[in-house]
Amino acid sequence: MQTLQQLQNGELKGAVSLKLSEQLTHFPNEIFELADTLEVLDLSGNQLTALPAGFGRLEKLRIFFCSDNLFTVLPEVLGNCPLLDIVGFKSNVIEIIPVKALNPNLRWLILTNNKIGILPAEIGNCPRMQKLMLAGNRLQTLPSELSNCRNLSLLRISANRLSYLPEWLLSMPKLSWLAFSGNLFSKNTEAGSLDYLNWADLEISHLLGEGASGVISKATWQKNENIQEVAVKIFKGTMTSDGLPEDEMNAYILAGEHPGLVQLIGQIDAHPENKKGLVMGLIPERFFNLGLPPSLVSCTRDVFKDGMSLSARQVLQIAGTIASLAAQLHSKGIMHGDLYAHNTLIDEEGNTLFGDFGAACFYDTSNLAVAAALERLEVSAFGHLLDDLLSLCDESGEHPLLIKLETLRDLSRADDVSSRPGFISLSDELTKLAL
To answer: Are residues 43 and 161 in the same domain?
Structure first.
């Protein structure tokens, strides 16, 4: 992170990227002195309410983050930057999106946790849009023109005021990752039966990790004379980019037991701050993350560490586990919403554990048409995951197994949503290949 003083002293001349967070109340005009080179600008964590009329002078700007400020209107001047590709105004107090603010070049727009009541029809004039994040707003409808965004792959509309899920949304050819919990039409599901464990019986050791929805720590759990090492996830209880933490917890509980899921031991009772949480089995140290989250360049697709490789048999085992688990989830009316390699843990043998239910949604399985469409949207995500796995394979593309897996990948990603196979069919096919 740079400083305003450095900017004003001319020390940042020629900078390609600039990040300032100093409780700014006005846009520093000195930024325009970087117009010839500046491609990435991050002014998150300030107190800005407006951008200058000449903002379009930043002709090379591709990425602009302005989260955690005080904007009430999405600035119209965003439409004046010819190369603007990614815009993030998360956690402002935005109520209005002017038509001119919707830059037609946008590929990724983040407006999570604002007060937006109407999404303009002109959103359909953004043909490059791949990722649209609108969770935690006040939307009552989605404009049908959004269906013109044929490249839209990830859509977050959780925690709004939508009364129905538009039919046209279910046939969008590229849509693969959808989260819609916490709306008026959303199916409300109780967590179901899971033992309550008293917080006093847990001794927290150290932090294992932290995500948008909660904090995971290693702990010991004492039950009578027995002591067991466990993992404890405490939910933050706040809106995330994907949805509501209570939906994540309920989905995990309702998912049931599966070899591809970390064992759930219980839910926490009597937390000193009245927070909700889960107690899970400790993941063996031999497991590691299969992938990394999408980058600003890849947008909706995961990235992988250099040198990462898999055998054809590992690819088959990972894909088989995920397909089997997804089939179980959808049989219970659960859409995971975030089926990605970065939410997948594997070991050297290809044993697989899948998690992170932060984008999970519940739907009515008795509505057969909607249920089938939602499942096949997620099948597309599985197809992308299978594509990633195949790209990591270190064996010849002429391998008979790989040819069959490529066929399943292509079927799963067909533009015609209704023509894609369901997860039961995919799981059966992958089981046959493993024999």
So the answer is: yes
Query: pTM of the full predicted structure?
Result: 0.94
> Is the same domain home to 352 and 326?
yes
For 58-106, how does the pLDDT look when each residue is reduced to its tens digit (9 = 90+)?
A: 999 999 999 999 999 999 999 999 999 999 999 999 999 999 999 999 9
98-124 pLDDT, tens digit per residue, is 999 999 999 999 999 999 999 999 999
Residue among 317, 191, 319, 183 nearest 255 (CA): 191
Domain co-membership, 115 together with 245: no
Place of tokens 């939508």: 162
- Whole-angstrom distance, CA of residue 135 vs CA of residue 111: 8
Q: From residue 393, how far is each of 5, 307, 402 by CA, in Å? A: 50, 11, 9
DSSP 8-state assignment for residue 109:
E
Which residue in the block uniquely carries the two structure tokens 């995920």? 322
Domain that holds residue 76: 4-179
Query: Mean pLDDT for the chain?
Result: 93
Which residue, among 79, 87, 82, 91, has the nearest Cα to 45 in the 3D structure? 91
Gap between the Cα atoms of 250 and 188, Å rounded: 10
**Which helix (H) or strand (E) element contains residue 331?**
helix 312-331
Q: What are φ and ψ of residue 288, in 5° steps? A: -145, 160
Residue 184 lies in a domain: no
Phi first, then psi, for residue 203 (nearest 5°) are -120, 110
CATH number, position 218: 3.30.200.20
Report how far residue 26's alpha carbon sits from residue 55's, in angstroms, rounded to the nearest whole number. 13
Give burial (CB, 10 Å; 0-12/13-18/19+) of 21: middle
Report the first-to-last Cα separation within the chain, whole angstroms.
Answer: 54
Give the containing element (helix H, strand E) for 132. strand 131-133
Would you state the torsion angle of the CA atoms of residues 309, 351, 216, 42, taken in this order, to the nearest 10 degrees?
30
User: Residue holding tokens 């046939």?
Assistant: 171
| Beta-carbon contacts of residue 189 (< 8 Å; ≥ 6 apart) | 250, 254, 333, 362
